[in-house]
Amino acid sequence: xxxxxxxxxxxxxxxxxxxxxxxxxxxxxxxxxxxxxxxxxxxxxxxxxxxxxxxxxxxxxxxxxxxxxxxxxxxxxxxxxxxxxxxxxx
Length: 90
What we know:
- By secondary structure, the protein is mainly β.
- It contains no helices and ten strands.
- It has a four-stranded parallel sheet, with no helix packed on it. Strands 2-5-8 form a three-stranded parallel sheet, with no helix packed on it.
């Protein structure tokens, strides 16, 4: 069984923007055994993505997961959590 626990999954192109979005109450019914959910997942060397002015609240996993790439920006975002904020690069 293939499980993809990402809220926003992108895998191609350059120069995209994720702005003014609201990511709330993201969790998984499968628990950590199948991986933690990611609000934003930039896959396969995706580059030049501007992630700006977004709201992240209640993410039970990662705010952002990077699958490589360059020149990605993460600025002026609001992260509201009870625990730690995690960004993972794979």
